[in-house]
Amino acid sequence: MNMGVELEATQSVVDEKLIYVKVHMPFEVLCTYAEVLHIKLPIKPNDLAPQSSTYNCFTRHFYPSEDVIAKEPEFFTAPFRKDQLKCFFVKDKEQFFTPAMRSRMAYYILSRAPYEVRGNVKKFGFNKLLDGGVYKAAYPLHDCRFNVKSKEPSCPNERFLLFNEWAHPKSFYKMQPLDLIRCYFGEKIGIYFAWLGFYTVMLTLAAAVGLCCFIYGYTTRESSTWSKEVCDPQIGGEIIMCPQCDKICPYWRLNSTCESSKVLLIIASVVGVIVYRLAMFITFSSNLHSHLNNRKELEPFKEYVTPQMATSITASFISLIIIMILNNVYEKVAILITDFELPRTKTEYENSLTLKMFLFQFVNYYSSCFYIAFFKGKVVGYPGEPVYWLGTFRNEECDPGGCLTELTTQLSIIMTGKAIWNNIQEVLLPWLKNLMFRHCTQVSSEKVIPRWEQDYQLQPMGKLGLFYEYLEMVIQFGFVTLFVASFPLAPLLALFNNLCEIRIDAWKYTTQSRRAVPEKAQDIGAWQPILQGVAILAVATNAAIIAFTSDMIPRLVYYWAFSVSPYSGGSEHTMAGYINSSLSVFNISHFIEMKRPNEEITPYWFNNITTCRYRDFRHPPGHPNQYDFSIYYWHVIAAKLAFMIVLEHIVYFTKFILSYMIPDVPEALKEQIKRERYLTQVILHETNIQHFKELMKGEGSSTTKFNIFRNCTLWV
């Protein structure tokens, strides 16, 4: 199973039953697999003049000092070829391949190395050995301790630098050392932190403008940051996960059943919360004020604690608990469904799981918010003919001020509770697990624990890697954008959370987790179209919230149309009389006995009047079409629909202009790519010519010389 690598077995210091196998790759093997993986390596220092910008002039004061973290030199790069090693910028063979490249090539070899052959059956890949328990773990080594600088002169101390200048709380104001992150952890983790940092910066802008700028602006920043590897092909870079995928597997029935079960479970949870709201609203309406009157210390809060507010807050906390519970259920079912689909590659597996998990989480997190924003209080009837749920519970109505306050309460509780819970999990769980593991494997003080055993005591990265980090941020992006019209503080809360998230993730990866296996990545993968879809949907949801949930459109319709002739006697546009026009009249005598208010909660004034007012646009009693919708109602509906269409077209047109004005690849990067291609061709051509001249100087027949000339010409 060596495939050119050198293996060395070492007895464990902590547990005598454990044996560690260290894998070393000689330079020749590294060169071979660097060519197989088409890894791009430097051929010449970058001679293009760096371009400065206002943004860089401002942010350079927040970067770590170059005396501590040296600026990484820029090179023109080309896919490595072993037979043209002289063409590449090899200053030191030991440092030519970075530790991330070495780990990636070692993982590539071990994941394909055969370990057993029985007849026509060939077993390969150490992942199967890990699953079977033959090996307990496989991981690259950290270069040193995170809090103590190594005294070995050959140790780069990158982990120590990352902890002090990136993960430590004292560095919260500093920009991220993205080059060092990429070199130490690999491109996939590096791109995640670049994306997270750019997303955090965009949250400081107005959310309405940031929707499109975030999607299109990130593409440009990502291209600039990772230009060194953006063109690296992935030939042979993916692992075939299921060699028997050509067999038809009956997974579709399970898939369909699980999907239906999840939808029904989500609907049942939402309906359960609605029923709770209805039942508790009746309870709070009958008992809350009497309880507050009997408690003098609560009297200052009497006017603020209403039955609607008490119901909304308690229901929001219940929704949060249900969401957290269902998350675990959906995660296991989504993974089970994806496993039954038998994706051929790891990328296909991650993309399939990403789409499923996002859709389930989308419905799970946002269903209650969509209900409050677009359904609650919309189909309630009128006092004489109310709409009932299940023939028992009357459909919920909004507060007299509308549903925006309740939607804001729901969003703030769910968003804040989710962020706090996730951060607690990310901090406490790895720390407690590592603490317990170290306590159970204590050794005498005179024994020195080697680096590989110290890393074994840390937490593994997990098979899904950064999946949950991206999922958390995308769900947050939905909260920030889908309902920002009702909760303008959402971007600010997300900003504070993400400033903590960057440092928490940095602390977790540098101190509590084993070093991740470096992976190739050119972008954020399947999350990019999901973010684009959420941004497009956010335009419609915010337009609908402004139009159908707030009072803006009814007020404008009254001001411009119904406050003047022919609907009113006034000649000037005014808001005087709007409240009266927004309240319809109901004759109390038109109540049927079964639908009259309960005597226990009937106000004292109910039996002393003949009519009451309710919020709607209906004809008054005595009108030929009494209690039907009035012309005012239809004007308002038409205005709301017109507002949504106009606003969506304006935003989408702005998005089109931005996508046209902001190129995916900046001009400076295009020039660097052209220069790199040109230099690659020139250097390779000159090297082949020089090699040809050296061969021609030697002795040989004319036929041999012709063959040499033909081979060199083909290489050129």
TrEMBL record:
Domain Anoctamin dimerisation: 2-178
Superkingdom field: Eukaryota
InterPro entries: Anoct_dimer, Anoctamin, Anoctamin_TM
UniProt membrane topology term: Multi-pass membrane protein
Gene Ontology MF terms: chloride channel activity; protein dimerization activity
Transmembrane segments: 192-218, 263-284, 304-326, 353-374, 473-496, 530-550, 631-653
Keywords, sorted A to Z: Cell membrane, Glycoprotein, Membrane, Transmembrane, Transmembrane helix
Residue ranges of domain Anoctamin transmembrane in the record: 181-219, 246-676
Any Pfam family matching the protein: Anoct_dimer
Locations listed in the record: Cell membrane; Membrane
GO cellular component terms attached to this protein's record: plasma membrane
Family: Belongs to the anoctamin family.
Identification of the protein by name: Anoctamin
Source species of the chain: Cyprinus carpio
